[in-house]
Amino acid sequence: MVENTRRQTMMGAAAAALFPSTRLRAKENAMPFKDLIIVNAKVTTLDRQNPVAEAVAIRDGRFLLVGSEADARAAAPDADILNAKGRRVVPGLIDSHTHIIRGGLNYNMELRWDGVPSLSEAMAMLKAQVARTPAPQWVRVVGGFTEHQFAEKRLPTLAEINAVAPDTPVFILHLYDRALLNAAALRIVGYTKDTPNPPGGEIVRDAAGNPTGLLLAQPNATLLYSTLAKGPSLPEDYRINSTRHFMRELNALGVTSVVDAGGGFQNYPDDYRTIEKLHADGQMTVRISYNLFTQKPKEELADFSSWVKQVSPGQGDDVYRHNGAGEMLVYSAADFEDFRVERPDMPPNMEADLEPVVLLLAENRWPWRLHATYNETIDRALDVFEKVNRDVPLAGINWFFDHAETISDRNIDRVAALGGGIAVQHRMAFQGEFFVERYGAKVAERSPPIRRIMEAGVPVGAGTDATRVASYNPWVSLSWLVTSRTVGGLALYPQHNRLDRETALRLWTEANTWFSNEQGRKGQIKAGQFADLAVLSDDYFAVPESDIVHLRSVLTVLGGKVVHGEGDYSSRAPDLPAPMPDWSPVATFGGYYKTKEARAKLTLNCGCASDCAVHGHDHAAALGTHVPARDARTFWGALGCGCWAV
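^ thats the sequence. predicted structure below, dont judge the formating
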């Protein structure tokens, strides 16, 4: 067995470059991959012809053999051997709807409340970050949480926010419904009693007419996002660092591929330069298929007319490739899902705006995705799709709706007839309480009707819609699919609309390849497919349902190369620079909240002979935490850290 030592990893003496996929560029092809075998594993392959295995052999970025340890060793006799120690191994997870490109640009600037169990702890984090953040920077909590996850079942008050941050601007985005700004942020953005409410939004005011700091989507979230855009941005080298950290955070949760759904304030090609630089430099650790999202109302057709001449679906390689249009095709078809307010009616011009865009896409064989929360919007969009289909058949274009929480049986069948798909996200896990309050528990029982969609033969995939609304954590989604519970604990669905664990996992792996036109290339642990996998912290198929949400990956492999390792496998992880800037919340708090139990399991999984007086057995913390010194080893050593001696 060939392994780097912890000392080599901690010091970065032999850190490997972050791995792009196989067969990308000639200079990379000239460097042969080291064969890898994983043994002593509980491998869930999702290959119905070979559903379980104890070992896998990997060569040139693809699975070479999936079966017994003896067969794997015979197939690759000179391979590096990695012992899974009886852990569950699953295909690398695929998120079919996220906003990784935009999210990566800002990840290092954002304090994450994802998974934080109490408001008191969230506010303590906020106070600590305020103390670390220099002027003129903001402290931002941008989505990924809901008030229902907190033990207190409420958001902070504006008075509480102002008390911990009297001078540092604070912006807190909650779902699609509201943003909370402290007085310092209000001064910066310039909202006064004379500032008018924008269409679809409200600047809440006190009795004297002065803004209070509460912004509401009514139901359009543009006010919230345009206010966020007024804050400082990172310089390009920091954006590169930030995106790398975000990708590694996803790797730590077992994610190896995503489909990026574009987003507001994400202009093509300007805001894609960071990710394209990382791709060119071979520093991507997540495969990305990206959709293009129109940016200007009334100019949507012009955008897509230009883009169909610049790029084609599938253009790129196995790590970074174009995937088509959406999720915004035309602004008149955008039904924002703020379940605290009434469903918005789309304007009468929706069909007239949508038809020429869809016709252009169909003629150019561009797949598209369309954000559509409500059945009423879906119904009208399908009228347009059926009309276009009569002139330009849609067969073979993998088009689909995103979200579809209230789609009817009739419209499910119409989607099936046109060869479309439906991508579902765990938005109801964060907004289910608000949905039930407005529409009732009975309506919520099929929001969305996943089982009915699958029974109709419609391709279904799962995702998160991260980062501004729901969390990027795939295990929150898998927990929701299996248990039907929101992050606040509310049970939404009867048994017939819940999924068993294997079916839910398929929606996060094999099924999602339809949405990026990559069927048969990834999503299973199967000979010939990309060698993307995750070794899990606990057994997904054995833990109590309530523990699914706490799962992580202890080892993630992309194209046969390790991109994440912790515990026993921390020495395998490639080097990662400290978060930039040095005051980044990521440096102090990381990403998704780790429970005390999760931290304890990292300790138990460590295979070293001795612990450290500072970090215990969590030796990776010495590398992953930013320190105010050039030499991390000297800094921690002065405090009694012995991680480098392990």
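The chain has a mean pLDDT of 90.
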